[in-house]
Design goal:
globular, six-stranded antiparallel β-sheet, alpha+beta, about 30% helix, 31 strands, single chain, 14 helices, about 600 residues
Amino acid sequence: FFVNDTATTEIYTQAFVGSVRCVQETVQGGTTVIKEVETGKTKNFTFDYSFWSHDEFITSPEGLYLPSGSKYADQHSVYESLGKTVLDNAWEGYHCCLFAYGQTGSGKSYSMIGYAPNVGIVPIATEEIFRRIKNTQTDTKKYEVTVSMLEIYNEKVQDLLVLPDERPAGGLKVRESKAAGVFVDKLSKHPVNSYEEIAAKMADGNKNRTIGETLMNQTSSRAHTIITIEFKQLDLSMGKKTQKFSVINLVDLAGSEKAGQTGATGDRLKEGCAINKSLTVLGQVISTLADKAMGKAKKEVVPYRDSVLTRILQSALGGNSKTIMICALSPSNTNYEETLGTLRYAERAKKIQNKAVVNESPQERMIRELKEENDRLKAAMAGCSGGGEDPEAKKRLEELQEELQANMIMMKEQEKSWQERIEEAKKLAEQQGPMIQFDKTKPHITNLHEDLQLTGKIGYNILEGEVHVGRKNGVPQPTIVLGGLGIKPNHAVFTCDANKDIMIAPFDPSCGEFIFVNGNELKAPLKLVHHDRIIFGTNVVFLFCNPGKESESTFPSGQEVDWEHAMTCLLYTSDAADEGLGVDLGGRRIINKK
C-alpha cells in the first residue's frame, strides 16, 4: 500500500500445511478467495496483486522453482511487480519501505530473502541497485550507498552488524529530532561500493543473529529484522551540487502465532507475547491511520510510541514514504483463522494514504538544523541546571545531555566526506577481522538451525590438541563459547591427534547429561565420524565434518542433514527415552518429561 498515494498490497500464498485448503485460489487481477471448509462459505478479498506459490511448479536441475502452469508466481515475477517499483521510487528520491507480514511459516522470509538459488526481493533489489549505478555513473553523477541492519527482539533493538559481545546490554535507544526525525541512536552505518560488499554485510548480520542466539539463549529468527539502505545521488553538473536522498527500509516481521498451536512455554511464550504485542500495536496504528484517511478519528492520536517497531517505522507507516506491504498466507484449513485475520489486516491497511515527497534537501540544511537544535538543547540544559537535588530535574538534565550527545555524533557524521567514511569502514574491518572464519578443509563443527537461512553460518575448527566448549567464564577459557539451558562453564572437550581422529568427551561426568551425539547421551569419550550430529545443552546443534574421512560416515549418503533430523534422533534412542527427554518440534525445544 501507499504507492503513488493509492493502496498497494500484495497477497502471497506460499506455505501449505495439512490436507485441506482454505485459500482456494488467487486470481491475477488481485483477488484472493478463502473458503470456510465446514460451512462452504467463501469470502473474496481484492488487492493490487495476488500471487500463488503453493503448487503448479517444477524444480530445475539447479534447484530453481519454475512455473509448470499459469498460476505459479516465481521469485522473479514477484520482484518485477514489487521490488522494481521500490527501486524506481528510490531513484526518483522518495523514501521507500517494503515489509512482509503473516503467520509463522507462511513464507515471509522466503519472499524477502529467499533460499538459494531461489533468492528473494532483497538480494535481487540490492544487486540491481549497483547494476544501475554502474550504467549511469559519470564524472558529474556520483552515488553513495550505506547499509545498516538491526533486529527488534523482546522490544530491544540490537545492531546486527556489531559483534554480540560488543553490544549494549539494554539494546540501542530510539530517539527523535526535528532535523533527523525518528532514528536509532548509535546504529552503525556501513558504506558499500558493490553488491558483493552489501551481500557480505547481510551475511554478517545473519551470522550475528546465530551467534547472538548461542551466546544469549535467544532464537533471533523470532525477531523483527530491518535492513536499511541509504541511497544518495550527487549531481555536480551546471556548476551546482544537488542531491537526492532516499532511505529504503526492507522489513521482515516475525510471524504472528497462537500459543496454543505452537505449544510455546517459558521463554518461548514470552518471545511470542512480545512479537504479538508489537504486531498488535502495528495493527492499531494501521487501523487509526485508515480511519484518518477516511475522515474518521481526526483527533485520535496514532499510537506509534506503544511499540519500538512502530516507532522506528513511523515515517514508513504514516509519513514521507512510499510503502508496499506483503501479506503471506498459509492455505491450510488448520490455519483458517490466522489466514482470515491476515487478509482483514491487509484489507484495512490498503485504505491508508501516505504523502511522499522527493527528498532533495542539501546536506548543509541538515547540519544547520542540527546546530540550531543543539543550541536549543544547551539552553534547556542551562534552565535545568538550577534544579538542585530535585530528582525530576536531574532526570530531565540527563535526557537532554543524551539528546545533545546523539545530535553531536550525527552532526559530526554528516560533516564527513564520502571518502572519509570509506576509509573509516576499511580500518574498522581490518581491526575487527572477519566475523567468523574457519577452514572447511580441516576437521570442524558447523551449526544446524531450524531457520535454513541461519544454518552453516558459524563454525569452529578442531585443531590438534584440546578444544574446550563452555561458557565465557569457564576455566580454562573455552575456545567454543556457548550459552543457554544446560550449558556449564566447562562443558565438553574435543581432542585431535596427528591422524585427524577427533574425540569428544564431557568435561566431567555431570556434563554428559546435556551432550548428545546422534541422539545418544555422551557417557564416555567417543570418537566422532563425518556427519555426526552433536547437541549441547537443550537447543545448540552442530554437525561434525571431517574432510578426507567421509567414508567413515554412518549417515545414509544422499540424505540431507538438518536441524529437524538431529532433534528427531532424540525420539528414537533408548538414552533419550530413559532420561525422559523428548522433542517438541512445534515449540522447537527439547522437553524434560520428568
